[in-house]
Design goal:
This protein is mainly alpha-helical. It is about 45% helix and about 5% strand. α8 runs antiparallel to α9 and α11 packs antiparallel against α12.
């Protein structure tokens, strides 16, 4: 199949001023084709749940917070090649994916419908007051009954190891019964939510740590449903995709199961569009294969099957056709990766 003439664009650089620094520009030059992004998502939460199912009292309290749907859905196998391809199509200036079928994005409605997170509550308050590392550790001990020691605390920082939280929960788990005092139920819940934040909703590029700043939001568990957690999760994912799309970033974090679920839908939709509007039998067949791959991969990811899809890039000389086109005004072109 002949590849039509193409150029990297954009047609106008008045808005997309970062195109010269965008990951797609490096791909256009034949770079990064063998370097998919590394998805930073620790599995401490799912490993814990596989061996320690939550007690009915914990489930009831988690349902009241609005986070239980994510626990119930469980782990999704990540397709790194799909995530990388989506980031290559992500435009930081507009927060949209640029696809052959048009522009698309992830919406607040997607977050609510797919994962049950509230999107119409209060904005999460920003706790910017200065607290020392020791004060955060005291706060951790007060609200969770767990005060990390040694290697379980980031040296000089306020982040703690997810593995330490998981191990402490495993120690507490046998004592969670129908007769357990509410104080211990709440402490256990806070530890579970810290794992959720650090492993799923707000993971960072460390891949193994979670910030103790989240404790500010977990002091009053009954207040959790009042806040727009969906908006915060989506904003954090947007920020992560913007950072991963610029220069030669190697890591991406954020709520990646949401990104992948939307990606499967977009690829399936692309395949359907090709079948309906293509003017050649080869394109129609290709569209059918694209839609089938998206559907099959989604089921495999949900079942926990290992995904071995690999991105396939054409060589630059195969698609550098048509008129030459100036590159966008990248502000950091030529610098090394951050």
């Amino acid at each position: 199949m002949d590849i039509p003439p193409a150029h990297p664009g954009p047609a106008e650089d008045q808005l997309l001023v970062l195109q010269g620094d965008h990951r797609s520009s490096f791909v256009w030059e034949g770079q990064l084709s063998d370097e998919p992004l590394r998805a930073r998502r620790p599995d401490d939460l799912w490993e814990f749940m596989a061996q320690h199912p939550f007690h009915a009292r914990i489930v009831a309290r988690l349902q009241a917070t609005g986070f239980y749907t994510i626990f119930r859905i469980g782990r999704m196998q990540l397709d790194w090649s799909l995530i990388t391809a989506l980031v290559e199509r992500w435009i930081p200036e507009t927060h949209t994916f640029y696809l052959p079928t048009g522009e698309a994005t992830i919406t607040l409605e997607d977050v609510q419908v797919l994962y049950g997170l509230r999107i119409d509550g209060r904005a999460l308050p920003q706790y910017i007051r200065s607290m020392t590392r020791g004060q955060y550790l005291d706060m951790m001990g007060q609200f969770t009954g767990y005060r990390p020691q040694g290697d379980d605390v980031q040296r000089g920082g306020i982040r703690v190891a997810l593995s330490g939280i998981r191990d402490h929960m495993a120690f507490l788990h046998p004592d969670i019964t129908g007769e357990t005092e509410d104080l211990h139920i709440e402490r256990y819940m806070r530890l579970a939510l810290l794992l959720l934040f650090g492993c799923v909703l707000f993971p960072n590029t460390s891949g193994s740590l979670v910030s103790m700043r989240f404790l500010h939001h977990l002091q009053q568990l009954d207040d959790l449903p009042l806040y727009s957690w969906g908006a915060s999760v989506l904003a954090y994912l947007y920020r992560s995709m913007c950072r991963a799309s610029i220069l030669c970033a190697v890591d991406i974090c954020g709520f990646l199961p949401l990104l992948q679920a939307i990606g499967h839908h977009l690829v399936y939709q692309l395949g359907q569009e090709m079948q309906q509007h293509a003017d050649s039998s080869a394109l129609v067949e290709y569209g059918r294969r694209v839609a089938d791959l998206a559907r099959r991969t989604l089921f495999q990811a949900r079942d926990g099957t290992r995904l071995d899809n690999e991105a396939q890039y054409a060589m630059p000389e195969d698609y550098h056709r048509g008129r030459a086109f100036p590159r966008g005004r990248g502000r950091a072109r030529g610098r090394g990766a951050p």
